[in-house]
């Protein structure tokens, strides 16, 4: 199995998921089979109980797994069907280790996780209660210490096992597994995964492992110069932890200047040809094309020793899709009436589905985000401006969509939106809770009237 690891530095939210998906698309276009793994360092076993405000959308897989939204990106880009095992979390790893310990699989040994922290002169030991019977697990962070293998072995075993699961409807494992490590390099919660991946890179060999580090190249408003220092520090931190990037994927608002690339190459010890630039584009379908134009696939295939079996990338369909969207002129106004509209990633799959449907109709979606609670009677007195703006957006919409949600907050506003759509013959789509809302509204407004006659 060949592995491509995507890590991130400087800040979160750089688009590692889209980058990982786009790299997978490029490798698929070269005739290779690709699978994906997302590693989330949080202690939750899955994303199912997490608020959309915390982590964005909870993406539901075909097998019922409730996972990180990046797996939705993988499925949409790569046209694969992932499983809940393709989302690895700290909670899942620790749970599997504790289950083994309870069954006696470790033959009475002390279960520990110890990993190397450089640039720290002191020893830090944390004891955490992990079971109801007051059992404690120790976490020792020792400078220059020897790795105690239980947690890191569990991570490596999980990655290698999941990488073999076919996800494209064909028999046998994929050729390449693209792994995205959530968070940023230097996060304390990511350290066991960094160490496990360092060991994995060593055990599988240099021809089977490629590391791509996604980092930010900011431009200070006053100076107007592309700054490389944050990326230099991020790469230095990564190298101190035992991993050396083969490629850099630099996020920036504008294309990188030649002198910026040369500076990055010199001080990050990465070939200039392997410094990729992912600058802002009109839509994310341009990113695989952007990487193709910079020969990212060639650099990755060379590192993985796959040049002899790969074909030139065929991305004609992607080019047509990206150009079609760019050339759309007519738009359709869609009122999205939800509970979590403060963070648009909360409804990422719904937005992407709307985008695909609109493009099929040669239309560009124009989404008006409406907080369902702003449509209710109380804001008319307490927040009249928000109330008026919400109703104005609803009345200007050509169609209404009410997505899913939990709890009773905003339900009355959703019912009002459904009633407005029905009474004014505005197309209405209800998803999950939104469909239940339409039934509730019809029962209250129509069936109740019939029964009262």
Automatic annotation (TrEMBL):
Domain Glutamine amidotransferase residues, every copy: 343-448
What InterPro entries does the record tag this protein with?
Answer: Class_I_gatase-like (IPR029062), CTP_synthase (IPR004468), CTP_synthase_N (IPR017456), GATASE (IPR017926), P-loop_NTPase (IPR027417)
The family classification in the record reads: Belongs to the CTP synthase family.
Q: In which pathway does it act?
A: Pyrimidine metabolism; CTP biosynthesis via de novo pathway; CTP from UDP: step 2/2
Query: Any idea where the CTP synthase N-terminal domain is?
Result: 2-129, 146-306
Reactions catalysed, as given in the entry = UTP + L-glutamine + ATP + H2O = CTP + L-glutamate + ADP + phosphate + 2 H(+)
**What is the designated name of this protein?**
CTP synthase
What is this protein for, i.e. what is its function?
Catalyzes the ATP-dependent amination of UTP to CTP with either L-glutamine or ammonia as the source of nitrogen.
Q: Which UniProt keywords apply?
A: ATP-binding, Glutamine amidotransferase, Ligase, Nucleotide-binding, Pyrimidine biosynthesis
Organism of provenance: Gossypium hirsutum (Upland cotton)
Question: This protein's superkingdom?
Answer: Eukaryota
Q: Which positions make up the signal peptide? A: none
Keyword Disulfide bond carried by entry: no
Q: What is its EC number?
A: 6.3.4.2
Gene name, per UniProt, is LOC107949559
């Amino acid at each position: 199995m060949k592995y491509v690891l995507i890590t991130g530095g400087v800040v979160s939210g750089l688009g590692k998921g889209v980058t990982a998906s786009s790299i997978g698309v490029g490798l698929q276009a070269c005739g290779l089979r690709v699978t994906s793994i997302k590693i989330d360092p949080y202690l939750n076993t899955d994303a199912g109980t997490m608020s959309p405000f915390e982590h964005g959308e909870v993406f539901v897989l075909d097998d019922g797994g409730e996972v990180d939204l990046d797996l939705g990106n993988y499925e949409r880009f790569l046209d694969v069907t992932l499983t809940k095992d393709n989302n690895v979390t700290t909670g899942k790893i620790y749970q599997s280790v504790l289950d083994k310990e309870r069954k006696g699989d470790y033959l009475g040994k002390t279960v520990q996780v110890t990993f190397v922290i450089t640039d720290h002169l002191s020893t830090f030991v944390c004891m955490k209660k992990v079971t109801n019977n007051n059992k404690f697990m120790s976490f020792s962070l020792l400078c220059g210490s020897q790795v105690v293998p239980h947690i890191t072995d569990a991570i490596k075993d999980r990655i290698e096992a999941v990488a073999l699961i076919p996800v494209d409807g064909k028999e046998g494992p994929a050729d390449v597994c693209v792994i995205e490590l959530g968070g940023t390099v230097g996060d304390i919660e990511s350290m066991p995964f960094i160490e496990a991946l360092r060991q994995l890179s060593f055990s599988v060999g240099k021809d089977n492992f490629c590391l791509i580090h996604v980092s930010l190249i900011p431009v200070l408003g006053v100076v107007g110069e592309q700054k490389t220092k944050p990326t230099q520090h991020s790469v230095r931190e990564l190298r101190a932890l035992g991993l050396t990037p083969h490629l850099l994927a630099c996020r920036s608002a504008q294309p990188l200047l030649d002198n910026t690339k040369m500076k990055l190459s010199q001080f990050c010890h990465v070939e200039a040809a392997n410094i990729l630039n992912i600058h802002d584009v009109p839509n994310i379908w341009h990113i695989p094309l952007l990487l193709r134009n910079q020969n990212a696939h060639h650099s990755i295939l060379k590192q993985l020793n796959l040049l002899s079996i790969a074909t030139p990338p065929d991305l004609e369909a992607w080019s047509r899709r990206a150009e079609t969207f760019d050339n759309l002129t007519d738009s359709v106004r869609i009122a999205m009436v939800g509970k979590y509209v403060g963070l648009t990633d909360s409804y990422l799959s719904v937005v992407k589905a709307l985008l695909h449907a609109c493009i099929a109709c040669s239309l560009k979606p124009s989404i008006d985000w409406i907080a369902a609670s702003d449509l209710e009677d109380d804001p008319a007195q307490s927040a009249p401006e928000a109330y008026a703006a919400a109703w104005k957006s609803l009345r200007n919409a050509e169609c209404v969509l009410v997505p899913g949600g939990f709890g009773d907050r905003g339900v009355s506003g959703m019912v009002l939106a459904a009633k407005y759509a029905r009474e004014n013959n505005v197309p209405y789509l209800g998803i999950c809770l939104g469909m239940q809302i339409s039934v509730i509204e019809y029962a209250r407004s129509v069936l109740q009237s019939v029964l009262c006659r």
